[in-house]
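We were asked to recover a plausible sequence for a given structure. The inputs and outputs are reproduced exactly as logged, with field labels preserved.

PROBLEM: sequence recovery
POSITIONS: 877
GIVEN STRUCTURE:
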């Protein structure tokens, strides 16, 4: 049986429906196939739109299958064909079913149709009920024509139920969404520009049960306006028919929404808020709507010559300030695991008794400035742009790092007095998707802000492209408050350039100088209103030198431990550990001489004499600085000879021994592991991992390799493994084994533990069993449990794999998860190719999943009969 590369046993692959004239419909891996041996002779053209390589065989991708049904001994299949780069049209196949005696050898037609629709729709809901609101005045004014000619035929072919309203005046969509009977619909659909989705969200927000309405009624969009950002982000296209197909096959997805208070009003924003150049180019070009999206570019060029600045006072709650950290945040949340966790969290819906909109955490614009906030004047800003989506129009991905439900807005600011050609380059970088890395652009992740325009009587403020009264306003984000129909559960934008290629983020932006100071300029003076101890210190590689001081390193590690334990509800004796670590004598250093450990690290080249390396006869340890050590008794971590000769304080040794129990080598407690995996702690965990990276950079730069630094590295490795963050644990393991274990002796158990993780990572994540066995030999690892894991992988032995999982600790289990799907896929392939039926308990043991999980997550299409699973039925002789 053929298997898809994504690791799932595809339902119904190989099912055959026999048709009249010896034709066959076959469910393939990714397509529905028609096999007609007489097609090249008969000249029939029922499937001509899809005929490609061979006229005797045609296929329809499952994503293009719209509907299938049986009637009068015929099967009818509605599907979409890509008529051009700009248009998708519906088409139809109709075939008579076979009636000869041999037809009983194929799949029963009812089962075939049911399986076909299951493959075609997957997690999407078929036959959606849509409340369609058409704005005939959107953009160039062709919405009704586009609906009738391009969109409605596809929806009708997919058997969607449609209730259509053509809007007559502005604000009508607010009233309709506010008063609609939501139980009758699966989505409220805007056939318009971005203004009508804005009205729909605000109509839902005006309902008495606003939170429930927003969390249960998905909004969708057919692009018929100028910007069409909603469709570009969620469907990857501004073409109406492409958006229609994406909606038909789309899934309900949680999305962040923003509350904006202006005067006494509170409105909901799904797209953006802007003041300055962009707002003027949007709202000041209403008379050019006939130009479509090109009106924005015309407006920008017209205004760039003026070098106009828009002075305002700003207070902002910055969550992520550096561009490199923004990329790291994007990389973390772009993983499928994170998306699944966010979706699971959001699917819980509003809390019991949650009727109206969420309470504003920071109040409204009419309230006093929140405690800790400070208004900072800005005089040179030309563009203030806060966004909740990546694309603002088809060619304008302003917010490359935007995520659909990370609970953060993206803030872009650009000075207004840039030289003309520099400003033009910034504009061109938008379309080229290079704006994020442009050195003249600041890019931050924020959760709230207050802005007060000044020195001008009137101007433009744009909220989701709609004009708002000119004056002060305040905004804050609500994570996953809204629901939308999306193509894939995320935004379709590609993300910042090279976000997935390196764990060391670099970008063309001003570097921090000594003392973590940004270059002079008003934006460089902006700091988070609440100083986070972990974020207050930058990366040493970016110019922040504070973590090069041993005292600061130990203080910073204290902050990391405190933050980690703060979100672990049951972390053992955390209070005594924190008290002990706070009492750490930061003047104490480990005076142990840099003696080589008896086991060579990976990559170590033995001496030419071939003599065995021992603690007594080892050659000098590698010196990354390239300089001879003047005093062999001085450790790389020593700040001075006097410090190196001091004795180890008992408080240091005792505290570090206590710290080993925070995450023991056997694995964390159940409650601690639950806290690490809790989606509510995602940001806190990310902060801790980023802080550990900063600390490791400081330790590497100072060549520190004492008891403190080793324990800090071990804690970092253990936590990063539990968080499944190889960008953190893999380089940490390499440095610990190749250098720190060489400079400072480590106990056998710790060397074997870390080398074991190194070996399992090579085998399970990097799929390199050869390297894993070399690591086993280099470090003389003799651990029967780990040997079982390697043997199971080497022989694809799924039974041994499950036994090994039962005996492994939680760190090893996390590393084994990297290979779990491959072993499960292999297991299912073995059963599928070798068995007619199997006992359910044995199948669940061999795959490590319950039957319902196999059906849901692995799309297993076998049949369950009590305690027996029927894989395939024997053909009758």
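RECOVERED SEQUENCE:
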């Amino acid at each position: 049986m053929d298997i898809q590369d994504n690791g799932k046993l595809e339902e119904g692959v190989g099912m055959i429906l026999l048709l009249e004239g010896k034709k066959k419909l076959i469910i393939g891996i990714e397509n529905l196939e028609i096999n007609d041996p007489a097609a090249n002779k008969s000249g029939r053209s029922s499937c001509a739109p899809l005929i490609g390589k061979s006229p005797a065989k045609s296929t329809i991708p499952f994503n293009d299958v719209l509907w299938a049904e049986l009637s009068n001994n015929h099967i009818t299949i509605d599907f979409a064909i890509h008529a051009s780069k700009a248009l998708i049209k519906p088409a139809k196949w109709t075939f008579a079913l076979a009636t000869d005696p041999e037809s009983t050898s194929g799949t029963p037609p009812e089962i075939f149709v049911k399986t076909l629709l299951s493959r075609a729709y997957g997690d999407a809901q078929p036959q959606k009920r849509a409340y369609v609101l058409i704005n005939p005045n959107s953009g160039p004014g062709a919405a009704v024509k586009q609906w009738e000619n391009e969109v409605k035929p596809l929806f009708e072919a997919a058997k969607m139920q449609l209730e259509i309203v053509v809007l007559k005046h502005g604000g009508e969509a607010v009233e309709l969404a506010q008063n609609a009977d939501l139980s009758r619909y699966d989505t409220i659909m805007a056939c318009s520009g971005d203004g009508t989705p804005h009205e729909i969200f605000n109509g839902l927000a005006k309902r008495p049960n606003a939170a429930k309405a927003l969390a249960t009624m998905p909004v969708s969009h057919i692009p018929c306006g100028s910007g069409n950002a909603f469709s570009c982000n969620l469907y990857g296209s501004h073409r109406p028919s492409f958006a229609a197909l994406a909606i038909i096959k789309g899934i309900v997805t949680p999305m962040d929404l923003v509350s904006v208070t202006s005067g006494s009003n509170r409105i909901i924003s799904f797209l953006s808020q802007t003041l300055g150049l962009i707002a003027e180019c949007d709202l000041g070009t209403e008379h050019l709507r006939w130009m479509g999206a090109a009106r924005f570019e015309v407006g920008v060029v017209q205004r760039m010559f003026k070098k106009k600045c828009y002075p305002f006072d700003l207070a902002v709650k910055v969550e992520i300030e550096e561009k490199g950290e923004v990329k790291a945040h994007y990389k973390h949340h772009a993983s499928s695991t994170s998306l699944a966790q966010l979706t699971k969290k959001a699917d819980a819906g509003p809390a019991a008794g949650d009727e109206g909109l969420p309470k504003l955490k920071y109040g409204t614009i009419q309230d006093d400035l929140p405690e800790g906030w400070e208004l900072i004047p800005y005089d040179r800003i030309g563009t203030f742009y806060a966004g909740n989506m990546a694309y603002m129009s088809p060619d304008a991905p302003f917010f490359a790092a935007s995520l659909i439900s990370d609970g953060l807005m993206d803030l872009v600011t650009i000075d207004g007095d840039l030289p003309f050609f520099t400003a033009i380059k910034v504009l061109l970088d938008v379309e080229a998707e290079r704006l994020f890395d442009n050195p003249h652009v600041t890019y931050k992740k924020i959760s709230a802000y207050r802005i007060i325009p000044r020195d001008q009587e009137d101007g433009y403020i744009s909220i989701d492209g709609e004009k708002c009264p000119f004056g002060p306003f305040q905004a804050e984000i609500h994570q996953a408050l809204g629901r939308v129909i999306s193509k894939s559960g995320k935004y379709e934008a590609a993300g910042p350039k090279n976000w997935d290629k390196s764990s060391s983020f670099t970008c063309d932006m001003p570097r921090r100088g000594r003392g973590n100071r940004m270059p002079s300029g008003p934006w460089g003076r902006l700091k988070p209103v609440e100083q986070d101890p972990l974020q207050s210190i930058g990366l040493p590689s970016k110019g922040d030198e504070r973590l090069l001081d041993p005292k600061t390193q130990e203080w910073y590690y204290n902050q990391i431990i405190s933050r980690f334990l703060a979100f672990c509800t049951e972390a053992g004796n955390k209070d005594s550990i924190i008290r002990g670590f706070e009492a750490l004598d930061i003047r104490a250093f480990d005076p142990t001489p840099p003696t080589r450990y008896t086991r060579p690290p990976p990559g170590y080249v033995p001496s030419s004499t071939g003599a065995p390396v021992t603690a007594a006869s080892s050659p000098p340890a590698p010196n990354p600085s390239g300089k001879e050590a003047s005093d062999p008794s001085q450790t790389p971590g020593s700040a001075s000879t006097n410090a190196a000769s001091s004795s180890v304080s008992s408080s240091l040794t005792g505290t570090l021994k206590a710290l080993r129990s925070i995450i023991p080598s056997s694995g964390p407690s159940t409650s601690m592991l639950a806290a690490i995996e809790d989606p509510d702690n995602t940001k806190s965990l990310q902060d801790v991992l980023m802080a550990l990276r900063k600390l490791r950079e400081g330790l590497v730069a100072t060549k520190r390799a004492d008891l403190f630094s080793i324990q800090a590295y071990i804690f970092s490795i253990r936590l990063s493994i539990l968080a499944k963050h190889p960008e953190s644990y893999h380089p940490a393991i390499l440095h610990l084994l190749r250098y720190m274990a060489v400079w400072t002796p480590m106990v056998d158990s710790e060397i074997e533990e870390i080398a074991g993780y190194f070996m399992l990572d090579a085998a399970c994540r990097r799929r390199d069993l050869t390297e894993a066995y070399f690591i086993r030999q280099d470090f003389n690892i003799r651990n029967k449990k780990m040997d079982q894991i390697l043997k199971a992988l080497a022989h694809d032995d799924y039974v041994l794999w499950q036994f090994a999982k039962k005996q492994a600790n939680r760190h090893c289990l996390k590393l084994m998860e990297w290979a779990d799907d491959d072993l499960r896929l292999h297991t299912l392939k073995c059963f599928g190719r070798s068995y007619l039926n199997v006992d359910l308990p044995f199948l669940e043991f061999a795959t490590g999943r319950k039957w319902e999980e196999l059906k849901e997550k692995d799309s297993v299409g076998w049949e369950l009969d009590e305690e027996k699973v029927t894989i395939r039925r024997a053909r009758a002789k």
